[in-house]
Amino acid sequence: MQDNGHIVWDPKFSVGVEEIDAQHRELFAAVNTLIDMNAGGSGDLYPVLKKLADYLSAHFRAEQKLMVEKGFPDLSRHMREHQLFTERVLDFLGRYKEQNQRLINDMLLFLRHWIHSHTTTMDMKYAEYLKG
Question: How many percent of the chain have pLDDT more than 90?
Fold first, then answer.
């Protein structure tokens, strides 16, 4: 991560599947866009957050399909991580209407941390499995 709060994609985070890697890069970019919008006081973040939530849903389906096809042994745990994350994001979206600045900051911190942490640790487990 950088000092400006951005999360930075690094090739070492590659899972070895270009479709998934491209989606991860897009997720990093989307979170960075939200961070910039919030820092610049760009107003309503809801449309961007909703688009990100929809994109994440599609990304999770793609990842889970790959893991099922390849017989990844820790699939259920990984899917549970995705489910918990989705529930948290949907909760944020539901409460966003309050325009509570603390909520927005908490949400951005959560997104930034979770996406970076998940792609660089949890996803590396199935990347290792795929390579092995």
Answer: 47
Closest CA to 48 of 56, 130, 19, 25: 56
User: What secondary structure letter does DSSP report for 23?
Assistant: H
Residue burial 42-81, b: 16+ Cβ < 10 Å; e: rest? eeebeeebeebeeebeebbeebeebbeeeebeeeeebbeb
**Could you tell me the pTM of the whole model?**
0.80
Residue 7 burial (10 A CB sphere; 0-12, 13-18, 19+) = buried
What do you get for the CA distance between the two ends of the chain, in Å? 28
